[in-house]
Amino acid sequence: MADDSPNDPLPHEMNWREFTARHPDFVEAINLGVVAIAELARDVPPTTVDGAVALLTGSIAENIIDVMFLFENERRDGAVRLLRTPFEKHLYADYLTKHPEKAEAFSLFWAVQSKQLLDGLKAHYGTEISEAGAEGMRKLLEIAKEKIEFNKCEACGSRLPRMWTKVTPEVMAKDAAMEETYFFAYRYATLLIHPTVMGIDHQLHNPPQLPNMLLHVRTIVMRTVVLQWEWFRKSKTVTGTAAVALNALSRAFAEPTTPLR
Predict the structure, then answer these.
(1) pLDDT tens digit string along 70-79?
(2) I need a labelling partner for 70 at 20 to 30 A (CA). Which of 19, 28, 101, 243 fits?
(3) Residue 175 to residue 66: CA distance in whole angstroms
(4) Predicted TM-score (pTM) of this structure
Protein backbone atom coordinates (compact mmCIF):
# COMPACT_ATOMS: atom_id res chain seq x y z
CA MET A 1 0.00 0.00 0.00
CA ALA A 2 1.30 3.45 -0.92
CA ASP A 3 2.25 5.81 1.87
CA ASP A 4 -0.43 8.52 2.08
CA SER A 5 1.63 11.04 4.07
CA PRO A 6 1.19 14.79 3.38
CA ASN A 7 4.64 14.86 1.78
CA ASP A 8 3.60 12.57 -1.08
CA PRO A 9 2.59 14.09 -4.43
CA LEU A 10 -1.07 15.01 -4.56
CA PRO A 11 -3.28 12.23 -5.99
CA HIS A 12 -5.43 12.90 -9.02
CA GLU A 13 -8.55 12.99 -6.89
CA MET A 14 -9.50 13.13 -3.21
CA ASN A 15 -12.53 13.95 -1.12
CA TRP A 16 -12.80 16.69 1.49
CA ARG A 17 -11.83 14.43 4.39
CA GLU A 18 -8.70 13.27 2.58
CA PHE A 19 -7.75 16.80 1.62
CA THR A 20 -8.09 18.19 5.15
CA ALA A 21 -6.11 15.22 6.50
CA ARG A 22 -3.22 16.24 4.21
CA HIS A 23 -3.68 19.94 4.91
CA PRO A 24 -5.12 20.28 8.44
CA ASP A 25 -4.39 24.03 8.59
CA PHE A 26 -6.07 24.93 5.30
CA VAL A 27 -9.57 25.78 6.57
CA GLU A 28 -8.24 27.91 9.44
CA ALA A 29 -5.95 29.75 7.02
CA ILE A 30 -8.89 30.54 4.72
CA ASN A 31 -10.90 31.74 7.72
CA LEU A 32 -8.04 34.05 8.73
CA GLY A 33 -7.97 35.40 5.17
CA VAL A 34 -11.72 36.04 5.23
CA VAL A 35 -11.39 37.96 8.50
CA ALA A 36 -8.54 40.03 7.07
CA ILE A 37 -10.54 40.84 3.92
CA ALA A 38 -13.53 42.03 5.94
CA GLU A 39 -11.31 44.04 8.30
CA LEU A 40 -9.40 45.80 5.51
CA ALA A 41 -12.64 46.86 3.79
CA ARG A 42 -14.17 48.19 7.00
CA ASP A 43 -14.25 51.94 7.68
CA VAL A 44 -12.82 52.86 4.27
CA PRO A 45 -13.43 56.53 3.37
CA PRO A 46 -16.48 56.64 1.06
CA THR A 47 -14.71 58.27 -1.86
CA THR A 48 -15.63 57.01 -5.31
CA VAL A 49 -12.61 54.78 -5.92
CA ASP A 50 -11.99 53.64 -2.35
CA GLY A 51 -15.69 52.99 -1.84
CA ALA A 52 -15.92 50.87 -4.99
CA VAL A 53 -12.80 48.85 -4.14
CA ALA A 54 -14.01 48.32 -0.56
CA LEU A 55 -17.44 47.23 -1.78
CA LEU A 56 -15.97 44.75 -4.24
CA THR A 57 -13.27 43.28 -2.02
CA GLY A 58 -15.13 43.35 1.28
CA SER A 59 -18.04 41.36 -0.13
CA ILE A 60 -15.61 38.66 -1.29
CA ALA A 61 -15.39 37.50 2.34
CA GLU A 62 -18.96 36.16 2.42
CA ASN A 63 -18.58 34.68 -1.07
CA ILE A 64 -15.59 32.64 0.08
CA ILE A 65 -17.56 31.41 3.11
CA ASP A 66 -20.29 30.15 0.74
CA VAL A 67 -17.75 28.50 -1.57
CA MET A 68 -16.02 26.74 1.31
CA PHE A 69 -19.35 25.54 2.72
CA LEU A 70 -20.09 23.78 -0.56
CA PHE A 71 -16.61 22.28 -0.80
CA GLU A 72 -16.86 21.00 2.76
CA ASN A 73 -20.14 19.28 1.87
CA GLU A 74 -18.77 17.72 -1.34
CA ARG A 75 -20.82 20.04 -3.56
CA ARG A 76 -17.82 20.81 -5.77
CA ASP A 77 -19.78 21.63 -8.91
CA GLY A 78 -21.77 24.28 -7.04
CA ALA A 79 -18.64 25.58 -5.31
CA VAL A 80 -16.84 26.18 -8.60
CA ARG A 81 -19.86 27.89 -10.12
CA LEU A 82 -19.96 30.24 -7.12
CA LEU A 83 -16.21 30.81 -7.28
CA ARG A 84 -16.62 32.94 -10.38
CA THR A 85 -18.25 35.71 -8.32
CA PRO A 86 -15.39 36.48 -5.88
CA PHE A 87 -12.84 36.08 -8.66
CA GLU A 88 -14.68 38.56 -10.88
CA LYS A 89 -14.96 40.98 -7.96
CA HIS A 90 -11.22 40.74 -7.41
CA LEU A 91 -10.55 41.48 -11.09
CA TYR A 92 -12.83 44.53 -11.04
CA ALA A 93 -11.19 45.85 -7.86
CA ASP A 94 -7.72 45.33 -9.32
CA TYR A 95 -8.78 47.10 -12.53
CA LEU A 96 -10.21 50.09 -10.64
CA THR A 97 -7.02 50.55 -8.62
CA LYS A 98 -5.15 50.83 -11.91
CA HIS A 99 -7.86 52.91 -13.65
CA PRO A 100 -9.49 54.97 -10.87
CA GLU A 101 -11.14 57.20 -13.47
CA LYS A 102 -13.48 54.26 -14.24
CA ALA A 103 -14.87 54.11 -10.69
CA GLU A 104 -17.77 56.42 -11.51
CA ALA A 105 -18.85 54.17 -14.37
CA PHE A 106 -18.83 51.20 -11.99
CA SER A 107 -20.84 53.11 -9.38
CA LEU A 108 -23.36 54.54 -11.86
CA PHE A 109 -24.12 51.19 -13.47
CA TRP A 110 -26.68 50.54 -10.75
CA ALA A 111 -28.88 53.15 -12.46
CA VAL A 112 -28.82 51.09 -15.68
CA GLN A 113 -29.70 47.90 -13.81
CA SER A 114 -32.47 49.67 -11.88
CA LYS A 115 -33.99 50.87 -15.15
CA GLN A 116 -33.89 47.33 -16.53
CA LEU A 117 -35.54 46.01 -13.38
CA LEU A 118 -38.26 48.66 -13.43
CA ASP A 119 -38.94 48.04 -17.13
CA GLY A 120 -39.32 44.34 -16.36
CA LEU A 121 -41.72 44.98 -13.50
CA LYS A 122 -43.83 47.21 -15.74
CA ALA A 123 -43.87 44.71 -18.63
CA HIS A 124 -44.68 41.63 -16.54
CA TYR A 125 -46.70 42.99 -13.62
CA GLY A 126 -47.90 46.41 -14.73
CA THR A 127 -46.03 48.01 -11.82
CA GLU A 128 -44.88 51.58 -12.39
CA ILE A 129 -42.99 54.05 -10.24
CA SER A 130 -44.22 57.60 -9.66
CA GLU A 131 -43.71 60.32 -12.24
CA ALA A 132 -41.19 61.99 -9.93
CA GLY A 133 -39.33 58.69 -9.58
CA ALA A 134 -39.30 58.15 -13.33
CA GLU A 135 -37.93 61.66 -13.85
CA GLY A 136 -35.20 60.99 -11.30
CA MET A 137 -34.30 57.78 -13.10
CA ARG A 138 -34.04 59.62 -16.43
CA LYS A 139 -31.66 62.14 -14.88
CA LEU A 140 -29.51 59.37 -13.39
CA LEU A 141 -29.31 57.65 -16.75
CA GLU A 142 -28.22 60.90 -18.39
CA ILE A 143 -25.41 61.16 -15.84
CA ALA A 144 -24.49 57.51 -16.44
CA LYS A 145 -24.31 58.10 -20.19
CA GLU A 146 -21.44 60.51 -19.60
CA LYS A 147 -19.40 57.78 -17.92
CA ILE A 148 -20.60 54.54 -19.57
CA GLU A 149 -20.52 53.89 -23.30
CA PHE A 150 -24.11 53.31 -24.45
CA ASN A 151 -24.58 51.28 -27.65
CA LYS A 152 -27.80 50.10 -29.23
CA CYS A 153 -28.20 46.32 -29.31
CA GLU A 154 -29.19 45.30 -32.85
CA ALA A 155 -30.86 42.11 -31.59
CA CYS A 156 -33.22 43.56 -28.98
CA GLY A 157 -33.13 47.29 -29.75
CA SER A 158 -32.07 48.19 -26.22
CA ARG A 159 -29.78 51.18 -25.79
CA LEU A 160 -28.73 50.17 -22.28
CA PRO A 161 -25.19 48.77 -21.87
CA ARG A 162 -24.78 45.23 -20.55
CA MET A 163 -21.69 46.12 -18.52
CA TRP A 164 -20.08 49.16 -16.93
CA THR A 165 -16.89 48.61 -18.96
CA LYS A 166 -15.98 47.06 -22.28
CA VAL A 167 -12.71 45.71 -20.86
CA THR A 168 -13.22 41.95 -20.58
CA PRO A 169 -12.40 39.84 -17.51
CA GLU A 170 -9.82 38.00 -19.64
CA VAL A 171 -7.94 41.26 -20.29
CA MET A 172 -8.23 42.22 -16.62
CA ALA A 173 -6.85 38.81 -15.60
CA LYS A 174 -3.83 39.22 -17.88
CA ASP A 175 -3.21 42.67 -16.46
CA ALA A 176 -3.43 41.23 -12.94
CA ALA A 177 -1.18 38.25 -13.83
CA MET A 178 -3.96 35.83 -12.89
CA GLU A 179 -4.45 33.99 -16.18
CA GLU A 180 -4.35 30.52 -14.64
CA THR A 181 -6.96 31.34 -12.02
CA TYR A 182 -9.01 33.03 -14.75
CA PHE A 183 -9.15 29.76 -16.69
CA PHE A 184 -10.47 27.76 -13.74
CA ALA A 185 -12.47 30.31 -11.72
CA TYR A 186 -14.00 32.14 -14.69
CA ARG A 187 -13.78 30.24 -17.99
CA TYR A 188 -14.26 26.75 -16.55
CA ALA A 189 -16.83 27.97 -14.00
CA THR A 190 -18.82 29.60 -16.82
CA LEU A 191 -18.95 26.28 -18.69
CA LEU A 192 -20.53 24.75 -15.59
CA ILE A 193 -22.99 27.61 -15.12
CA HIS A 194 -24.60 27.31 -18.56
CA PRO A 195 -26.98 24.39 -19.28
CA THR A 196 -24.90 22.66 -21.95
CA VAL A 197 -24.03 18.98 -22.40
CA MET A 198 -20.50 19.66 -21.13
CA GLY A 199 -21.70 21.57 -18.10
CA ILE A 200 -24.28 18.93 -17.17
CA ASP A 201 -21.80 16.09 -17.72
CA HIS A 202 -19.34 17.69 -15.31
CA GLN A 203 -22.14 18.31 -12.84
CA LEU A 204 -23.32 14.68 -12.87
CA HIS A 205 -20.24 12.62 -13.67
CA ASN A 206 -17.06 14.71 -13.69
CA PRO A 207 -16.98 17.06 -10.67
CA PRO A 208 -14.03 19.48 -10.54
CA GLN A 209 -10.90 18.14 -8.89
CA LEU A 210 -10.72 19.14 -5.27
CA PRO A 211 -7.01 19.92 -4.76
CA ASN A 212 -6.79 22.07 -7.87
CA MET A 213 -9.84 24.17 -7.14
CA LEU A 214 -8.95 24.81 -3.51
CA LEU A 215 -5.59 26.17 -4.60
CA HIS A 216 -7.44 28.80 -6.64
CA VAL A 217 -9.63 29.66 -3.65
CA ARG A 218 -6.44 30.30 -1.70
CA THR A 219 -5.02 32.41 -4.55
CA ILE A 220 -8.11 34.63 -4.66
CA VAL A 221 -8.05 35.15 -0.90
CA MET A 222 -4.33 35.92 -0.76
CA ARG A 223 -4.36 38.25 -3.74
CA THR A 224 -7.38 40.09 -2.36
CA VAL A 225 -5.67 40.72 0.99
CA VAL A 226 -2.55 42.00 -0.79
CA LEU A 227 -4.60 44.21 -3.14
CA GLN A 228 -6.51 45.73 -0.24
CA TRP A 229 -3.38 46.33 1.81
CA GLU A 230 -1.44 47.99 -0.98
CA TRP A 231 -4.39 50.17 -2.02
CA PHE A 232 -5.81 51.18 1.36
CA ARG A 233 -2.63 51.18 3.45
CA LYS A 234 -0.32 52.39 0.65
CA SER A 235 2.44 50.03 1.74
CA LYS A 236 4.20 46.89 0.54
CA THR A 237 4.91 45.79 4.11
CA VAL A 238 1.92 43.84 5.43
CA THR A 239 1.40 43.74 9.20
CA GLY A 240 -1.23 42.78 11.76
CA THR A 241 -4.16 40.49 10.96
CA ALA A 242 -3.39 40.61 7.25
CA ALA A 243 0.19 39.43 7.78
CA VAL A 244 -0.96 36.57 10.02
CA ALA A 245 -3.48 35.50 7.35
CA LEU A 246 -0.97 35.63 4.49
CA ASN A 247 1.61 33.65 6.45
CA ALA A 248 -0.97 31.00 7.33
CA LEU A 249 -2.22 30.77 3.74
CA SER A 250 1.27 30.45 2.31
CA ARG A 251 2.03 27.52 4.64
CA ALA A 252 -1.34 25.78 4.37
CA PHE A 253 -1.14 24.54 0.79
CA ALA A 254 2.22 24.76 -0.92
CA GLU A 255 2.06 21.58 -3.01
CA PRO A 256 1.60 21.55 -6.79
CA THR A 257 -1.81 20.67 -8.18
CA THR A 258 -2.78 17.98 -10.67
CA PRO A 259 -4.00 18.83 -14.18
CA LEU A 260 -7.70 19.34 -14.79
CA ARG A 261 -9.47 16.30 -16.17
Answers:
(1) 999 999 989 9
(2) 243
(3) 27
(4) 0.86
